[in-house]
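Any chance you could type out a protein's amino acid sequence plus the matching C-alpha cells because I've never seen that pairing?

——
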Amino acid sequence: MEYRPGLEGVVAAETEISCLDTGQEQVVVRGYDLLELARKRSYPDVAGLLLDGRLPSPSERARIEAELLAGARTVPGPVWGVLARLPREGHPMDALRTTVSALGLWGEPQHPYRLIGQVAALVANLIRVREGEAPRLPEGDGGFAGAFLGMVTGRAHSPDEVRAFDQTLVAYSEHELPNSTFAARVIASTLADTHGALTGAAASLKGPLHGGANEAVMHMLLEGGDEAGLERLIRERLARGERIMGFGHRVYMGRMDPRAQLVKETLARLVARKAEGERLLRMCERGEEVMRREKGLYPNLDYYAAPVYYLLGILVGLYTPIFFVARSAGLLAHIREQQARNRLFRPRVLYRGPRGLRVD
C-alpha cells in the first residue's frame, strides 16, 4: 500500500457533480463553467443545477427562490433557543455547527432548498440572537441573495451590491472534493442523516486552512492598513516562516484560482461605486504582486472574497458561515449522490509503531 499524505492525488469518489479542470482553468459544474454561471445566472439557478441536475426554467427558479425564503422563515423555535443560549464570545462557526446539528432534532426533514434557507437565516443571526436580539428574517418575496444580504447587514442594498454578493455565493457553491465535502461524503457513507453530514462539513470548514482563510485575509488587510503596510506585514510573516492566508491551493498549483479572478473583477466593479474601497483593491493587488514575486503563489477565492464582504458591511466573523451557506447546495448534492450509490469509506493505515511488546 502506498501512503499519500493528505490523500494528495488519490481519487476517492466518482461524481457527476463537478471537477476542477486545471488544464482549461475551469471549475466544471454538471458540464457548465462555474465562472460563466456566476456571470450569467444567479445562486438559485446554480443550486437548482446542483440539486436537480439541470438549470431551472424561469418558473422553476421562482419556485426555488420561494423555497429558500420559506426555509429562512421556518427555523424551529427551539433551534433559536439553542442559539440564544450559546456563549457570546464563541466563534460564529462553532455556533453554526451546533445549530445545524440542532436543526436535525426539531421538525421534519426539510426539502433541500428549505434547508439551505434555514441555514442562511441561522448564519444571518449567529451574532444577533446570542446578543439577545430577535432573529432578523427576510422581508418581501424578492431574490434570495438580496434577502440573505439584508438579513446579514440589516439594511437595503443596491442592485450592484446584491449582484456582487450573489456572485460570491455562486463562486463558493461547489468545488469538487475539498476537505469539508469529503467529510460530508464520509459521514454520509455510513447512511447517517443529512444534518449529521452537514454538521461534519461545518466543523471542517472552520479551519483556517479551509474556509476560515477568508477571515484571516481580512484581518491581515486591516492590520496592514495600506499598500506599504501590507507589503511589510507579508514580508515579516514570510521571514518568520508563517503561512499567508488567501494564497496557494492544493489543486491550482502555480496558477491563480479561476474563481479568484472572477471575484477580483467583482471587487473592481464594486470599488467603482464605493470610493472607500479603492484602497482595499490597491492593497490586494500589491499583496498579490509580492506573493507571486517572493513565493510563486497566486490568490485563491478567499483572498478577494474577503474585501468584497467587507465593503458590503458584513461582519468579519460571518465570512466563513456565509461560505457554508453557499456551499450547502454542493454539499447536499454530494450527500445525495454518495448515498445513491454508496460504499462505506474505510481506508487503511501504514503502521509505524513498535511491535512485539510484552505486558509485565
In short: The mean pLDDT is 94. Residues 308 and 321 are 15 Å apart (CA to CA). Residues 213-311 form a domain with the Cytochrome p450-Terp; domain 2 fold (CATH 1.10.230.10).
